[in-house]
Each structure stands twice: as C-alpha cells, then as structure tokens.
C-alpha cells in the first residue's frame, strides 16, 4: 500500500476492488466474500460511490482494502492508519497482529505514530535514511531505560546529530555548472492567402480594345483586378504591399498586336519586330511569396494563350499556328494543379498522428505520478512466462514476474484508446473529402487503412513520450516540439526534392514521410499496394509502430526496475 492514494477516481468502490482482485488472480466469488469481511473491518462506504467523491480517510481505507484483499504472504503498508478514527485504527492493528500470528504473514509498516508500533514484534527506527536501532519494543525500552518509544527515538536522534557534526568536513566542495544555450532553428511560416476577382465576363469584340478582351480571360478565381491611373501609382501599390503585382498595357497594344499579326502573315518579319515592343504587356510581381508569384505567372500566361486562340478563331485562322512549340500533357493530375490536393495527404496524416499522440502522451505519466502504475506492477501472484526468443530479448521474460507486466499495461491502453482514435481518424477523413473537396481517384480503403496505421503509430509514439517524461508539462512540450519539424520535413508542405541533402536524409527517417508519399500516390495517382511507393509506406509505418512499442516497453521496464 503506497503513501499516495494510487486508485482510479472514476471507479466505484466495488469496481476498484474487483479490478485489483482480478489482477491478483482471484475469482469473482472469492472477491465478493472477501469484500463483505473488509466492509465490516474498515467501515467502508456503500460500494456504488465513486472513489473521487470519498473523503481522504475513506479513500485511505479503500486503498488498504485493496492491499489486504488477496492476503499476500508479504504485505508492505505505508502509513495505513493516517487520518483514521482511533477505534478503527485499533481494529486495523488487531487484524494485522492476528494475521501475522495465525497465518504467518510478514507485514512491514511505516508510520510516524511511534507509540502505536508497540504492537509490532520488531521495530526499526529510521532517520535521514539511516537505521538507528532495530529490536523488539520491550528490548528497546529496556536497553535505553525509557518509558516510551518516543523517548527512545529522541535519544537516538540526538546521538545521530552528535555523530554527524563530528563527521562534517571543514571545507565544502562547490560544483560549478555551465549553462549552454542550444541553437534553435527558426520555423518556416506559411501565408495562406487566396486571390479572387469580382466582375462580369463580357468579351470585347471591338478590335480597338483588345486589351479589355484579354483581361476577361484572366482567372476570376485567383486574380482580383484594381485599376490605377498611371504606372507609378500601380507599382507603388506593390511596393507598399497592397497588391501582389502590377500589369501595364500600352495604349497602342490593340493596334500594334493586329499589325504584328498582319506582318507575320505577309512574311514581313522585319516590320513585325518593330511592332513587338508596342504590343508587349509589362508585369511587375512581388516575388517574396513564391507560391503566389507562380500562380500569378501561370494564370497571366494561360489567360493570354486562351485569348490568342479566341482571337485567331474569330479571324478564321488555324489556332495551331500560334501554339507554342512546347506542349505539356499531364500523366497524373490536371493542367491546373491545386495546392490543397498536394498538401492534403500529409496534413491529414499529421493531424491523425498527433491527435493520437495526445491520447497517450499523458497516460503513463498520470498513472505513475498517482502511484497506479507501481501498484499494478506489484499486484498479482508470481507467474512464469515463456514466449518466443525475440520477446524474451525485448521484454526480459523467462524470469520470475510478479503482477502486471509493462507489455500488458501498454497494450491495455492501446486497445482502449484505439477506439477513440478510429473515431478521430474517420472524422478527419470525412472533413477532408466532404468539406474541403480533396480529390481521391484511388482506393479510399487504402487511405483509411494508412490513416489508422498512422494513428496507431502516433499512439505508440505517445507511449514513448509518456514513458520518458516524468511531468505532464514536459510531455506536452515534447509533443509540440515534434509537431513542427515533422510537418515541415515529412513532405507535406515542403517537397523532399527541394530540401538540402542533410534535411532530406533526416526526412526519410521520420515516420510520416513514406506514409505521406504513399497516400499521395493513392489519392492523386490512383496507385494500389502493388506499387513500391505505396507498399513501402505501409511497411515503414508498421516498422515504426513496432519500434515505438518496443522502446516504450523497455523504458517502462527499466524505470520499473
């Protein structure tokens, strides 16, 4: 019985005793018979009451009931009678004395109430981690000529103080510590800004105003046009950050463009060159945002290409004469790729992964700090486990094991939290497909399976964090610290081909990189598991699940030892 409560507050009294009784290996019938005896002995409240709603003294009595439930051969109790009524304290001591004499139980009790320990057969007095004396109560009283154990302890403590002063060195050694500040890399920020256009599409068929006709062909989904009286005011808007670009169409554009076309048909190339500069459209762009600049360049060129095709069609001229000598055809995807489709696979897996991390990152910490983990480890009867060689190496089994093992603790959390994780994953995928309209031309089953595996991988990673960290705030900081490097280096937003070589090597070692590539291939290319990009994503995810689980088990077993 630990000094802290070490009970599940959400359990009722009956559920708590049943839970630990089953861990001890008792049958339900035997547990119920034992409960009836303990209720009378410890004056327990009604069994349906939740542990968290009990008073401090009542909670201590429930904890004591759990400790003595299976009548172990060795019973260690840490201050079992703190906050207990004097009559009830006497009953507890009478019970323990009777168990020790009749059933030959070995009972070790720690207490600050020295006089109540007179009923024990042997007393060990400890101060500052040192045993001052150990003997039967009557022998201690006789040895030091005292009438109470309090007086004996006082004499021993005074003797210890005198001995400590004599052994204290005259010079103290001071240790100097240097604090070194680690270099931290700055994260990359993403500006999610969309351009739009308002206005009516009306094709201008007057050849004197061809510039107006061209503006109609600009993509209304990305470009919002604002008109300025001159070039200086237009470029000033770009300099001040009010616009992403400035377009200048000369007043001679329509006439010069028509004349340029006529000269080409008349094979008068020299005269055509003279009209080239007069029919040019000048564009100044703010290139600080690479993505927006690329979209603007693409739409401006694509708009002019569509405009040219329409003009020559009205002139009854074959449009292929004005087609560029280079033609782009898509193998996968569309001619107008959407960044959302590129980023969605990685983003959705990252969300699922770290939602699962949040489910388990604090699980073991809370149980460890409340004493539940230690109590579960020591609960139960001695057993021998014989498993395969690989598990024997990882878990150090084939030894004498008492109580619940680290493997059982972790897998119990996996089974219970997996249900919650499945709901989170399906909800995230539903939003991705139904709300954000992300394209998926491949098997949705493959996407769901990969998302569930990534959720399981995130849960196992959360167990590693929970096993390593000792406080909740540390686990939260580690989880948040892993989020941004993962989403930036796993290929979700930053293509692997654009990364420096060192970062690319790091990226391949992240649990989300191959999975992101696999889901992107399924959704945008329609590939199945027979493709290497896809099945390696599944293999890597399963490997990371095994690695994280084994590491978590080893850490828990190491801390348990």
TrEMBL record:
Membrane topology: Multi-pass membrane protein
Gene Ontology molecular functions: ABC-type transporter activity; ATP binding; ATP hydrolysis activity
TM region(s), chain numbering: 342-362, 383-402, 414-435, 447-468, 474-496, 508-529, 535-556
Domain ABC-2 type transporter transmembrane: 405-524
Keywords: Membrane, Transmembrane, Transmembrane helix
Primary subcellular site in the record, as a coarse category: membrane
Record-level GO cellular component terms: membrane
SUPFAM superfamilies: P-loop containing nucleoside triphosphate hydrolases
Protein name: Uncharacterized protein
Species, as recorded: Acanthoscelides obtectus
